[in-house]
Structures are given as structure tokens and as C-alpha cells.
């Protein structure tokens, strides 16, 4: 890192250390230097490109004002990737592909995210884009077109009025929590570290680079911030601790004799591929059903199935209460299975009112109500 003075000198966010032998060290905030040095020691051929090196590890920054828990801490978990291409054109193709993958990931999580042009900051490079969850808690002010959603970080154009030329609309403002960042680095790191490859013409050339980061611990905190209510945690469905909590009747209650049905239902639901390993049975039958429902809600489990016996035209039929994050419904055991079986993937399940309901779920609801 000392080979790049711009990264070492004047970088107040680095945890810098000096050992007893007067050797300098730092707790890494990112790993551009290490990744580039690693690749420079390989015998890279044009046949190996594009090359993508990634890791998931703890990172450290000497934040001046750590706050808001995982949203801004001195230690955090990050997925960082470093890409190597043969020329600028191919590097741009890789950059666009990975930015698209990030956008797709956030769409799967079901959170209102925005990609905006950002500052390259201490990392450097030719250009960069940030990915933000839209939230009033966010510390970044974003300027964006409400029609096409092209945007920029407000720090790049402070105090100026911007008009989106393509849409002929003035940019609007909102706050965002940065959860991802992509940088087109060019040869900022590959040239000093002599990271090269052998071309098809048997010529040694400098690699073109990009780097990409997802703040995993920040995504967790930002997701809760964007989706939750005062009395309950709401996770994106794909990262909820469990998808379904099955609650048997309370021990000693009049409905205790249908406990076996709870276990039978849970077992049948695990046969649905996307529910496998994502169902928990809350068998603390010494607690009331209400307490267990509240605890499931506080943990962010999106669906709770309460097994009970309800009077109906067919008294022998067992009914369950399906408790969703937005409504409760009394359904037969068979209908509950149909409710979940209609979806082949977890990301297709409607979770919060902030997401447009899947049309198939609307169809299922109508069918179940008949």
C-alpha cells in the first residue's frame, strides 16, 4: 500500500499501526493492493480472462463518527471482488455486467434500491457507481430523475439544479443508505504492481481492473431499517431466519389434542422445495399462542401457521390460522399447503406492502376465499 502514496498518506479512514520493529501495518478497509499483487504473481494468459477474484471477510475503517449500529461501524463484513480484463472495452463490459447483477440482487430482496453515479474517493479510478437503499435514515443525499431513475450522489453537484436531458425533468432529492459500490479502475493498481497478461500476439500487457463491494452487514441493517415497523422486524424474504413458524396449541388447552397435526403440517410443507430447511416448529407449548406469534414477528419470520380446531360445517376438519405480515386468514390444512406450493421460489412470495403483489398470489387468494 505504501507503493501508492495516495492510498496511504492522508487517508484518515485507515487503521494504521506501527509495530515494535517500526514496521507499518494497517487493518484493511479494502483489498485492491493485495488482490492486484496476488494476480501479478500469476502467469495470466489472455485465455484466462476475464479473471474475477472475490472474498467475503471483515473490513475495518477508523470512522470518525460510528453510529446507527451496523450502518456505520468500525468493523463490518464485506463481499469484495476484483476483476481483470485485457482492455478497456472488455473491462467496461464486465463493469456493466456486475452492476446489473447487483441491481438484480436488490430487486430479488424486494427493497427500493437506486444506482447512482458516485465519487471514486480514496480508491481512485475512472468512474464509479453507488447502490443505495432509499431511506430517510440514509446519510447520503441523492439526486435522481423520477421517471428513468438515473441519479447521482449529491456531493458531486452540490447546490446545482440538474435536469435529466433524456426525460426533460428536473432531478428530485432523497436520502439513501449506501450498500454497494462499483469502481472502474483502469490501471490505477495494475500498473504500479505490474499485473500483466500474455496477449494472443505474445505481447505482455497491463491488465485493466475493476473492483466491486457489497456491505453485507450493512445490507442486513439497512433492510431492517427500510422494511420494519416499530413493533416487528421485517427481513427481505430471502434472508429471513425462517420462512414459516408452525405453532401448535398451548399445553393444557382444549385444543391440545391436535398438536400432532402441527407436526404433520410442518413435515408436509418441507416437501415444498423452497421451504425445505426454512420451517421452524415453535414447540414451547408452555407459552401462549399470542406470545409465540409476537416472538416470531420480532424475529422477522414472515409467516406463522397456528394450528387449531375451529367449528365449521364440517366439525372434523382441522383449520389453521395463517398469520402474514399484512393480514390473517383462517384456512384449511389443504389450502395452507396450496398457498405455499403455488410458488416455485421464495422471491416470488409477496412479503410487504411496499412491493407490488405477485399476480399469481392474488389469484391464489381469490381461489382460497371461494
UniProtKB/TrEMBL annotation:
One of its GO terms (cellular component) is mitochondrion. Residues 47-236 form the Aminoacyl-transfer RNA synthetases class-II family profile domain. The keyword Aminoacyl-tRNA synthetase applies. SUPFAM superfamilies: Class II aaRS ABD-related, Class II aaRS and biotin synthetases. Gene3D superfamilies: Anticodon-binding domain, Bira Bifunctional Protein, Domain 2. PROSITE patterns: AA_TRNA_LIGASE_II (PS50862). Keywords: Aminoacyl-tRNA synthetase, ATP-binding, Ligase, Nucleotide-binding. One of its GO terms (biological process) is prolyl-tRNA aminoacylation. This is Probable proline--tRNA ligase, mitochondrial.
Amino acid at each position: 500500500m505504501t507503493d501508492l502514496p495516495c492510498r496511504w498518506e492522508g487517508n484518515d479512514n485507515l487503521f494504521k499501526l506501527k509495530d515494535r520493529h517500526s514496521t507499518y501495518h494497517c487493518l484493511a478497509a479494502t483489498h485492491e493492493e493485495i488482490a492486484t499483487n496476488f494476480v501479478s504473481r500469476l502467469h495470466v494468459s489472455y485465455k484466462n480472462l476475464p479473471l474475477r477474484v472475490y472474498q467475503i471477510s471483515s473490513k475495518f475503517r477508523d470512522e470518525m463518527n460510528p453510529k446507527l449500529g451496523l450502518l456505520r461501524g468500525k468493523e463490518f463484513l464485506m463481499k469484495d471482488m476484483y476483476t481483470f480484463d485485457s482492455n478497456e472495452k472488455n473491462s467496461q463490459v464486465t463493469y456493466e455486467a456486475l452492476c446489473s447483477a447487483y441491481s438484480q440482487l436488490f430487486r430479488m430482496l424486494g427493497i427500493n434500491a437506486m444506482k447512482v453515479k458516485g465519487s471514486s474517493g480514496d480508491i481512485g479510478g475512472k468512474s464509479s457507481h453507488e447502490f443505495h437503499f432509499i431511506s430517510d435514515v440514509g446519510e447520503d443525499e441523492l439526486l435522481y430523475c423520477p421517471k428513468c431513475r438515473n441519479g447521482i450522489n449529491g456531493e458531486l453537484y452540490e447546490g446545482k439544479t440538474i435536469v435529466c436531458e433524456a426525460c426533460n425533468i428536473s432531478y428530485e432529492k432523497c436520502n439513501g443508505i449506501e450498500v454497494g459500490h462499483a469502481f472502474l479502475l483502469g490501471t490505477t493498481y495494475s500498473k504500479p504492481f505490474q499485473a500483466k497478461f500474455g496477449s494472443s500476439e505474445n505481447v505482455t500487457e497491463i491488465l485493466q481492473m475493476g473492483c466491486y463491494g457489497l456491505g453485507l452487514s450493512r445490507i442486513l441493517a439497512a433492510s431492517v431499517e427500510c422494511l420494519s415497523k416499530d413493533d416487528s422486524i421485517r427481513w427481505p424474504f430471502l434472508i429471513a431466519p425462517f420462512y414459516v413458524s408452525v405453532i401448535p396449541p398451548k399445553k393444557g388447552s382444549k385444543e391440545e389434542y391436535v398438536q400432532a397435526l402441527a407436526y404433520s403440517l410442518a413435515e408436509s410443507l418441507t416437501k415444498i422445495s423452497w421451504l425445505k430447511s426454512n420451517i421452524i416448529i415453535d414447540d414451547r407449548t408452555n407459552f401462549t399462542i399470542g406470545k409465540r406469534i409476537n416472538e416470531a414477528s420480532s424475529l422477522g419470520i414472515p409467516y406463522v401457521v397456528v394450528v387449531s380446531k375451529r367449528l365449521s360445517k364440517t366439525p372434523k376438519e382441522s383449520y389453521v390460522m395463517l398469520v402474514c405480515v399484512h393480514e390473517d386468514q383462517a384456512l384449511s390444512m389443504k389450502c395452507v399447503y396450496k398457498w405455499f406450493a403455488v410458488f416455485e421460489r421464495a422471491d416470488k412470495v409477496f412479503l410487504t406492502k411496499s412491493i407490488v403483489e405477485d399476480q399469481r398470489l392474488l389469484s391464489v387468494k381469490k381461489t382460497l376465499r371461494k
